Model the fold of this input.
Amino acid sequence: MQLRVPEDGIPTTRDEKLQIPGGGWRQISDENADIPSNAEETGRTSPTGDSPASASGSRASPRSPAKATAPGQPGARRRRKAPKPAPADRVTAAVGAATTAVVAVLGPWLRRVRPYYPRPGRTGWKRWVPSWRQTGGAVLASFVLSVLTLTVAYAVTDIPDDLNSYATQQDTVYFWADGTPMARAGWVHRQEMELDDVPEDVRWAVLAAENESFYSDPGISAKGLTRAILRTFGQGSTQGGSTITQQYVKNVYLTHEQTYSRKFTEAMMALKLDNKMSKDEILEGYLNTSWFGRGTYGIQRAAQAYYGKDVSELNASEGAFLAALLKGAGLYDPTLSAANRTRAEERWRWTLDRMVKIGKLSPEERAGYRTFPKPLESNPLYNTGEQSDYLVELATQHAKKTAHISDKDFDRGGYQVYTTFDKKRMDQLTKAVGAARDKARKDEPGAAKHVHYGAASVAVDGRILAIHGGPDHRKQGYNESNATTVPAGSAFQPFVYAAALEHGVRKSRDSGPVPVTGETVYNGDDKVPVTTPEGPYWDRSGRKVAAKNDGGRSYGQISLHRALASSVNTTFMQLGMDTGLDKVRATAQAAGLLHSSLGAQVPALTTGSSTPSAIRMASGYTTFAAEGRHTEPYTILKVTRNGHEVAMDTPVPRRAMDADTAAEVQSALTDAFRTAYPETAAKAGGKVAGKRGTTERDTAAWYVGTEKKVSTAVVVYRIDLAKSLEPLPLEGLGGTIADSVPYSIWSEALSPLG
Done:
């Protein structure tokens, strides 16, 4: 049905066609019959109150029908989409909807099971007794909450990347040349060992005593934790119940404070560590970090402290005793008290029996361990102080240098340093110096207050066998054997002689070098002026330079061989000038003296202005005994770290002078010893060579001699260390030519001559 609409009217009923002013009709479909037509086209107000539009067909209003203007045609417009809600709003709405749904579903059940407490329908005390449902619900809720708490705690527990200082720090042990322990250094007495180096019987002794289920438990023990809790409530402190994994966690990550929080953290870390590391790795770490008493951490140091041997040499019986110490060394070290001995033996027997019970020791083997393995009375590695600390200091310097170990790495410890030091020679040398020191204090107490004795024995292959560094390293860290503070005096003459034999002498500027031999003759008179090709040698003050012989003695024309044997200073001052002071310095350095200790290139060089140490003087004299080959002095045979050898530089001999030159100097030194000490020389059968050394101002007295391919140098001097390093006159403490204190020490320090 269609209706005719008047031009100026509005249909009184909803029509399907509308007549448009100006002519024509518009068909309106039923689907948009409820949408007003474009009022702009009529110029009138629509029944809905929309503003009319002009008849020119301008842009449709937002309320225009969808089909009034075709898409893409002028006046067309896209609909705007409603904005999406924010993510947080969507999540909130979803949670709210879910909660509503859960409440709607579970609400009736929750209302039904909701506990009413105190219980209704009961009177008196019965109102306060929970029902079985309430009790069961509480238990179930507690269980769920506990599981949830433990799960979260396990998830958030981390294993630290760094171990604590006690777990990483080790000590360094020094050994004598024969392999026996000499001393140790480091604030933690510990050395790491691989598990394979620990005998299986020793491992199982520890496991039997501490945690027999170690290889099957998850890192914690429910029984142990329960026992610990019961003991805690009973005695008021956290005790026992720890597996080896927990003890290892405590050793390397935590502290030993007895608190519930520490125990809880320990258990969580133990569970996590058990999943991260193998059982063998945990056991190895535990054995290397546990405290065994006597200042020791780790089973290797414990074996050395209680039995004087490496852990690899222990048997099951000794291992059972060391396992007892894990309960508390202060209670089980049998050397501390009789009660400790009783406890230690009881625990030792129990551990061995336990090993039999768990099948790790046969009854026959157990029967062989009936006697308690008595440990040493004291820790042999604690023998430090006095001379051993001087040895440690010297060996440490050489170890770092030859093995190329940085200070930082060496301070971490864990090294085993095998030295060249001969314990017998050290004892003899220490005894000899001690006797001389006591005599000086008795005879000259005032002068002896500042007297020093440096000494060193060096083999021809470079090994330093013994030194004397001072009265006690803890009182005087200054090492007298390695000091370069006093002149060598006439003990330097052999190097001048060797330089002349090697290079010859020049008597004039234009002539070439002339060879010399031991029979070459020089003037040996006292105070003979030194000459050069141009004439006398003048010092800076304008005075002629001349040497002085001991006692003002003149020898006339004397052979070089005899001049060395008699220590004629004037002969060697002129010989040095003729040879060339540069060649004298080069020869002395090639023979083993340090360049930094050599004197200035002036005539006084030939009379011993150089200041070598006792070690370097002994090393220099070995060059003559070694047929002209020199090996740098060293103190280290080998260095290992935790059982693995460390690569190091090994000194090798090198040619310092011709073999004939060395042989002639050694021959002259043999005659020097024979001349000075004929009776001793006769007993030695000509196998000893040596020479005394004196200085012009009497600031030092030396004796350097070689016996059995070992050169020993001894020097006596006075220095007030509180004031300066300037040498003081000896005031008779060096003895006389006939009764030399350095020679007395030298002869007493050596093994019987011959």
